[in-house]
Each structure stands twice: as structure tokens, then as C-alpha cells.
Q: What sequence folds into this?
């Protein structure tokens, strides 16, 4: 069942060969069988989902059931607020938080009549690359449970790879959709900054955060984006652009496509297997009629430092709201200042504290120009690198990550090694451009991801290339055994 | 050379409203020093005439009409409050 695409499921429901209740039950059955090992879910919405499914069954066969996503189960990353359904952002500070409204993306999925089966584990407040920073438990990689699923949307990627849901929502600030998608062998797109509303996304770094979907195939991903993209007056950074028809771009045709391959993305530090998978993929795209050249994104090596200064600075401001006054778990204290300090110190994990500290430092008097403003200027240089390459090329291609998934515990004690893992995904967020990760091979039984980066608001080309590649290869058909 | 001292870490922790014991101060001093050393790599670049990027999109001021709209009821707004009294959020005393 879980190798079915959205259009196949739609057809089964449409022909009444399957009811919504049966489909949603299949999802929960799978969760009850494998989630003990994978630990992708933070909170299940079993009762609510089964009730909703029953209600939708009454509409089967009518005009109202025509939408492609009608009745399909979805998992939602736990930093996207869901009305009345506990939302923790994987932080102990929010262990009792029941949001009073839905995020815009959730409203849009509700309008398409998907069914939220539960909330997905992540690194606390989306800070991390392995899900080991969850304030509750670490999600495991379905391909090998000794390995991390990636992060921060680790639960979102693992749940799709494990066949618990057909698709999920994640968020990506420095690679948090693409990196876990690569590690778990599924498809994940970070849309152009501003394409998808951030209203109801618990903010980490507001100038970088974007919500996107994790799916089994490129086509499924395009269906999801079609439903969640578009202007939202509740998000003042939402772009007022027309949403094109993404599905129409899935032609399989890449003849004449000009691909740029940054030499920095295949440089020292990139695993040999990963490099070979990417070169094989480029060869495949050449066979399909595309051409590629080596180019340079000369400021790539400054991206990690730039990112950690900017994202941590923004985080230190955004996370100031978690003070134990209006919501969350409040610590016992004698006076208000103590209440703030105790609540935050007991509620936040180490990585969150580390980033708040770094951000507070970078924004503090005497250091602002040297660190924060300097990083903003280097961000301009990184953005310019991309714009220059896009003058002559349609897409930029490279690996999503320098290595396949690493072992649980391998990098957790050294923040800098952990941060270096995001070196190929971070520049994309700094430039605000869209990028997808699609499976492009296996290395010692672990998936490798191919990253395809496009111009601002040119998701159509990104999808076209990803789809053509996927359809010409069998990588997306490989599934983990659990 | 150490780029950040234990005293600075304590100062920053206070600004960030975080409480730390000596062992934590020690750990964060080392870790932040490492991260800041990496950040200093940016000084290799001449950015004298470069404009900072605060946002990738060319957004103008986004304004809406100043109109009263229904929002949460008082009861709903207080639903997640850890402590409340007479329809208001309650906190311990601000002044000692």
C-alpha cells in the first residue's frame, strides 16, 4: 500500500475500492507496527483522525471528493501549530501546549481534506541535523536504526520512508527538509523564501525558515506544493506571486537544459560514494539531453559561519517569547526575573541554549557590527554568487549532504562537526532560492541525495529536472526493510 | 587567544535570561569560543562596500487596514496560561 502515489490513492478512493477510514487505519496500523523502532511520531491524533475519516467516507463518490488530496493521511512537523492538537516543537518547555489556531499550511491541507494523523518529532525548535536534539527522544533512520534520520525534520522524513504516511510537512532553515530527505531516501523540497506562508510555524530564524513537503516522489511533492503555496495576508513576508501549475512541468523533458555544478560542492570532505552517485546522476541527465559545466560559488566556505551567526541571532530574539508567562511549562520562582530564567533554563535543551547564547552575543553592544552586520554583508556575497551563476544556467546541481547518514552519537558532542554537515544546504537558505533533494543511490545501504537548486520562484524547473531524473532511474523505488 | 571569557558568558546568559552553574559556564565558554573562532573566518573578506542583506525578497512595507476583527475570547486566550486570576495572566511579583 505504501508504495502508492497520491494519484493512485486518489483513484482507489474515487472508484470506492478503498474507503478513507481503511486508508487512515492502514496508516495507524503501520505506525503501531514500526514506530517503536523509528520513533518518528511525537503525538498521535488517532481518535480525531478516525472520526474525520468517517465523516469523509460519506462524501466518497460525490463531487466533494474530487480533490486529489481528499482523504489522504498526512504527518505534520511538530513546530507547525495545529488547533487543539499538542504542538511541542520537541521542547520540554511546550510539553503541554495546545495551539488555539491552525498554521496557514494546515488550514490549506484541511481545505484539501487531508487527515492529520499526528505530529512529527524534530530537533528542538528545529535546531539540529540529527534529531538527537529533540527534548524527548531521537528518531531513527528506517534504513538502519543505528543511524540518525537527519534533521531537523527527521520525523517528517523517517515517517515517509518507513511507510507510516504518504507525505508529511517539514520546515527548512538551513537544510532541515533536504538533509533528512537525503538521509532517509525520500523527496524533499525547500520552496523559495516567501512562497509558502510561515503563519503558524514556530519561528526559528524568520529570514530563512520555509515550510515544504516530504514525499515519496517528485509528482507527489508537486501536488503538495500546489496546495500549500501562495500569498497569505497573515504572513507579512509572504510573496504576492501567482502560483503556477507545477504538475504541468513534469514533462520528463530536459533537452537543452543548462546545469551548473559548483566545484565547491564536490570538493574535499565530500564522501567518494556521494561524489560518484552525483557524477552518475549528471551522466544520466546528459543522456536525457542536458549539458553541464563546472562553475564556482566562491563564497561557499563562508556559508556555515554566516548562517550560524544570522540564524542564532534571529533565534535569540524569536525565542525570547518562551518565558513561561502566557503558555508552556512554568518553573516555580519567587519573582518574575527568576521565573523567566528558571523556566528557560529548565525548558530548553543544550543546543537551543547554545544558539541563544551565540545570537545574544552577536547582537550585543560592541559586537553587533563585527559579527551580525558582517554576516549580513557576507550573505549578500553568497546571494550574489548564485545570481551570477543563474545568469548562464537553469539549475545548480550537487550533493545534498557531504556524507550519507551518520551513526547515532557520532557527532553530538561536537557542535562544529555537526554544523559542517549542512555546508551544502545552508547557502540555498541564505540566497532564498528553492532546492529539492531526490534519491540518487545507496552507499553501504544508506541513501544518497541529489540536490537540484533553482532560481527564485522557479520551482517548476526544479521539479521538471527532478522528475525527469527520477523517472529515468530506479533510485526512488528502493525502500528500507523494517 | 580566548575570544570570549567566562565573565562575558555569564553576562550574555543574563541578557538571554538563562541561568547557568559553573560547569555549564565552563562548557559554554569553550564551545562559544570555538564557534566564534569559526565566525572570525569572515574577516578574511573585504565587505567595506557591500550592502547587508536582511531579507532576500524585495519587500516593501506591508500594511493592512486598521479594522477591529474578532479574535480569541478571553477564555481561549488564557487556555494555555500556567497561572491566572480574574481573567488575567498571573505572575509572581515583579519587585522584590
A:
Amino acid at each position: 500500500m505504501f508504495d502508492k502515489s497520491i494519484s493512485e490513492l486518489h483513484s482507489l478512493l474515487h472508484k470506492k475500492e478503498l474507503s478513507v477510514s481503511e486508508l487512515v487505519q492502514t496508516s495507524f496500523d503501520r505506525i503501531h507496527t514500526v514506530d517503536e523502532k523509528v520513533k518518528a511520531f511525537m503525538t498521535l491524533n488517532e481518535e480525531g483522525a478516525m472520526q474525520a475519516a468517517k465523516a469523509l467516507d460519506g462524501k466518497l463518490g460525490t463531487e466533494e471528493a474530487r480533490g486529489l488530496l481528499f482523504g489522504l493521511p498526512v504527518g505534520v512537523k511538530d513546530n507547525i501549530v495545529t488547533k487543539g492538537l499538542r504542538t511541542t516543537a520537541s521542547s520540554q518547555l511546550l510539553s503541554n501546549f495546545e495551539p488555539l489556531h491552525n498554521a496557514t499550511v494546515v488550514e490549506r491541507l484541511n481545505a484539501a481534506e487531508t487527515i492529520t494523523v499526528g505530529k512529527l518529532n524534530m530537533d528542538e525548535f528545529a535546531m539540529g541535523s540529527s534529531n538527537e536534539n529533540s527534548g524527548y527522544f531521537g528518531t531513527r533512520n528506517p534504513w538502519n536504526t543505528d543511524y540518525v534520520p537527519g534533521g531537523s525534520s527527521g520525523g517528517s522524513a523517517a515517517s515517509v520512508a518507513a511507510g507510516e504516511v504518504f507525505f508529511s510537512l517539514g520546515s527548512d532553515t538551513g537544510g532541515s527538509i533536504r538533509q533528512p530527505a537525503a538521509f532517509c531516501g525520500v523527496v524533499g523540497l525547500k520552496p523559495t523564501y516567501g512562497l509558502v506562508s510561515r503563519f503558524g510555524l514556530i519561528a526559528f530564524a524568520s529570514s530563512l525558515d520555509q515550510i515544504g513537503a516530504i514525499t515519496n516522489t517528485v509528482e507527489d511533492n508537486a501536488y503538495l506544493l500546489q496546495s500549500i503555496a501562495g500569498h497569505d495576508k497573515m504572513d507579512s513576508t509572504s510573496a504576492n506571486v501567482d502560483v503556477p501549475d507545477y504538475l504541468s512541468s513534469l514533462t520528463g523533458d530536459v533537452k537543452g537544459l543548462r546545469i551548473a555544478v559548483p566545484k565547491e560542492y564536490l570538493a574535499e570532505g565530500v564522501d567518494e560514494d556521494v561524489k560518484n552517485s552525483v557524477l552518475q546522476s549528471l551522466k544520466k541527465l546528459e543522456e536525457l539531453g542536458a549539458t553541464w559545466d563546472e562553475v564556482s560559488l566562491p563564497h561557499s566556505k563562508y556559508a556555515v559561519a554566516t548562517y550560524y551567526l544570522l540564524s542564532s541571532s534571529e533565534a535569540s530574539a524569536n525565542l525570547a517569547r518562551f518565558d513561561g508567562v502566557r503558555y508552556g511549562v512554568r518553573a516555580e520562582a519567587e519573582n518574575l526575573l527568576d521565573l523567566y530564567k528558571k523556566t528557560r533554563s529548565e525548558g530548553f535543551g543544550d543546543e537551543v541554549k547554545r544558539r541563544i547564547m551565540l545570537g545574544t552575543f552577536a547582537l550585543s553592544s560592541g559586537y553587533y557590527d563585527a559579527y551580525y552586520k558582517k554576516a549580513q554583508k557576507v550573505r549578500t556575497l553568497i546571494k550574489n554568487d548564485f545570481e551570477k551563476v543563474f545568469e548562464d544556467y537553469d539549475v545548480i546541481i550537487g550533493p545534498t549532504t557531504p556524507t550519507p547518514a551518520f551513526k547515532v552519537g557520532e557527532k553530538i558532542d561536537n557542535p562544529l562537526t555537526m554544523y559542517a554537515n549542512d555546508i551544502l544546504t545552508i547557502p540555498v537558505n541564505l540566497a532564498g532560492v528553492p532546492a529539492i533533494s531526490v534519491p540518487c543511490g545507496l552507499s553501504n545501504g544508506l541513501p544518497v541525495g541529489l540536490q537540484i537548486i533553482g532560481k527564485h520562484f522557479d520551482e517548476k524547473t526544479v521539479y521538471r529536472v527532478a522528475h525527469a531524473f527520477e523517472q529515468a532511474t530506479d533510485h526512488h523505488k528502493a525502500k528500507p526493510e523494517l | 587567544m580566548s575570544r570570549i571569557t567566562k565573565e562575558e558568558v555569564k553576562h550574555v546568559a543574563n541578557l538571554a535570561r538563562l541561568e547557568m552553574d559553573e560547569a555549564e559556564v565552563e562548557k559554554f565558554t569553550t564551545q562559544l569560543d570555538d564557534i566564534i573562532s569559526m565566525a572570525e573566518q569572515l574577516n578574511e573578506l573585504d565587505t567595506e562596500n557591500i550592502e547587508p542583506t536582511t531579507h532576500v525578497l524585495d519587500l516593501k512595507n506591508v500594511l493592512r487596514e486598521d479594522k477591529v476583527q474578532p479574535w480569541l475570547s478571553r477564555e481561549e486566550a488564557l487556555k494555555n496560561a500556567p497561572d491566572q486570576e480574574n481573567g488575567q495572566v498571573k505572575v509572581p511579583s515583579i519587585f522584590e
Summary: The radius of gyration of chain B is 23 Å.
